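Hey, I was hoping to borrow your eyes for a little while. A protein chain has come my way and I'm curious about its shape. Take your time with it, there's no hurry, and the full record follows here:
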Amino acid sequence: MARRHRRSREETDINITPMLDVVFIMLIFFIVTTSFVKETGIEVNRPSAATAEKKERGNILIGIRETGEIYMNKQQIDIRAVRANVERSLAENPEGQVVIVADKGSKTGVFIEVMDQARLAGAVVSVAAEQQ
């Protein structure tokens, strides 16, 4: 009689190892497939354009404020650091493109300098605008 009681106790134990394996595999799947949104780190008033197109892929974003301040990866950078930062970003993501997000009131000279530095780094440059 003691033997029967022991067997029933062993059979009632639930093995949760396979369930934990499935949970960890699902966690890894969701982490790998998640896409992260990159931002310039500043709020700008973009100009509108009738020919504006929506870009689906995450790119290298450079923001220019109305005051002429330049931001990349939520940090203010100097115009001389734009080329090095773009080169570093292109090394991480060779297919990335530079998107310049400039405020309506930003100066054209700063915009041209940023675009020139990005092109010298070997990047394809686009300009962000609001769709009309």
Q: What stands out?
A: The longest strand covers residues 60-64.
